[in-house]
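Why does residue order matter? Because the sequence determines the fold. Keep that principle in mind as you read this record.
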Amino acid sequence: MSEPGGRPSRRLWARWTLAVTAGEVTGFLVPAAVGAATADASQFVQLVSLVAAGAVEGTLLGVSQGWVLRGMLPELPLGRWVRLTALAAACAWLLAMIPASLGGTVPTAALIALMVPAGIAVLLSIGYVQWRVLRDLLPHAGRWIPGTAAGWLAGLAVFTGITTPFWQPGQDFMTIALIGMLGASAMAVTMAAVTGAVMVRLVMGAAGGGLRQPVTSPGPGQSPPPPPHPEEPESEPDPASKKPS
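Structure:
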């Protein structure tokens, strides 16, 4: 799983980057389409619709990540991974939408005070719930939380840097959509590349020290498995039993 010199496997990183980029770009199309379709709807309809669309985006992201991870960690509970990722993505969209929905109804200082912790929670949400799965499989799995946050922060910065100068008032829908997809694709590649580097390092470190096995407890009426017995050394034959030839 590693290249000469102890470097992380570029092939493994490339597989993660390509798969996660495809999953995130495809997933992002859902809230983008829902946002365009509900542009003239009430704020409540927009909020509910985008949170549901965010869950779909998280599902596709989780599936793409899980597809690669199952090759690294066969014990990964894929269904739980996908469900938690979808839940975190929905919560992230909810947190991101609340400050915008409150604009004009609360003082600016209060709005900023709300946006800061909400933004931090958005960045940490996916990494945190995925850590709850990885902690049973990888040592130092807690590093996945800041690693994922760094990936999303870098991706959102790239998205903003691309779309802000190109989106202008009065543009037609197709132009706006093309600029948005360009920004979303760059965001997905950046996020996937950063998180892929973090995941590869975690897996490589575990491969060197031994992967954790999932901890299971005995069911009702079952006794815990007995502790392993140390191997007994082979006894040497008794010299007295040897007969002279």
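DSSP finds six helices and no strands in the chain.
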